[in-house]
Amino acid sequence: MSPELSTFSVLGFGFLLGLWHAKDPDHLAAVSTIVAEKKSLLNSMIVGGFWGVGHTLAILVVGMLVIFLKLQISEAMEARLEAVVGAMLVLLGLNALVKLFRKSTIHIHTHEHDGLEHTHVHTHKDEKKEEAHHFRHFSPRSVAIGMVHGLAGSAGVMLLVLPTIDTPAVAILYMVLFGVGSIAGMMLMSLLIGLPIHLTAGRFSALNKSILGAAGLLSLGLGVFIIYEKLLV
Fold first, then answer.
1. What one-character-per-residue DSSP string does 126-177 give?
2. Could you give the count of Cα atoms lying within 13 Å of 75 in the half-sphere of its Cβ?
3. 3 vs 73 pLDDT, higher one
4. Residue 125 is inside which H or E element, if any?
5. Exposure of 148 by Cβ count < 10 A (0-12 exposed, 13-18 middle, 19+ buried)?
6. How far is CA 174 from CA 63, 86, 194, in A?
7. Going by C-beta distance under 8 Å and a sequence separation of 6 or more, which residues neighbour residue 79?
8. Cβ(174)–Cβ(60) under 8 Å?
9. Shortest CA distance to 65 belongs to which of 181, 168, 183?
10. 171 and 68 in contact (C-beta within 8 Å)?
11. For the chain, which residues make up each domain, given as ranges?
12. Mean pLDDT calculated for residue range 144-165
């Protein structure tokens, strides 16, 4: 096999690994809690894209340390960092559930018909807040979440490949392509997550709220499991 073909194969593997890496359960759980707040499929994809950007930035920083300073992260440190991811998932899940319960505002109206007084209780959404939120594209929270995942060493397979690449330039390009793959993969996964939310918003309120609640519970449950596995077992 020629050196050029070998380099191309390594770079192609980096992109595919990044694409596949996006479907990890902790990544999907974290992003789903933010995507659940978006009714626009475009915004859902943008959330995933920014997650990938943050993840790529963290991987590049850690990768540079691995390449140039021969940094090695101990198993104990990696476990602590992954526990941080677990704690973040717990917070995201709780936040999603709190927002779900606060999503509707309760109103009580009293009316009089034919001399009889009636009290009506109903809820409606804050349309102004939702509309303003609908047009917010930049998602710094997604970037921060992606960076935490990257720093936690969730892409350990990618970092294991770096020491086997002789040329630093190729190693850096490998990380960039890995990042591009993770961005593309997460945008696709965010689109798939956002699709049922988009389709059920409005006409299927109960189902929509069930999906939002499931996203929060998934993040909360997975976060507790990660913390237990990494710190208590």
1. -HHHHHHHHT----HHHHHHHHHHHHTTTTHHHHHHGGG-S-HHHHHHHHHH
2. 1
3. 73
4. strand 116-125
5. buried
6. 10, 28, 30
7. 230, 231
8. no
9. 168
10. no
11. 3-232
12. 75
User: In 3-15, which positions are buried (b, 16+ CB within 10 angstroms) versus exposed (e)?
Assistant: eeeebeebbebbb
The whole-angstrom separation of Cα 39 and Cα 103 is 14
What CA–CA distance (Å, rounded) separates 194 from 43? 9
Task: Give the separation between CA 158 and CA 223, rounded to whole angstroms.
Answer: 23
Report the candidate in 191, 158, 192 with the shortest Cα–Cα distance to residue 176.
158
Helix axes 25-35, 205-227, angle to 10 degrees: 140
Q: Tens of pLDDT along 164-221?
A: 777 888 888 988 999 999 999 999 999 999 888 888 877 778 888 888 899 999 999 9
Helix (H) or strand (E) holding 68: helix 41-69
Of residues 52 and 77, the one with the higher pLDDT is: 52
Token pair recorded at residue 198? 């988009």
Query: Average pLDDT for residues 138-160, to the nearest whole number?
Result: 76
Place of tokens 């859902």: 44
Q: Which of 221, 92, 225 is nearest to 148 (CA)?
A: 92
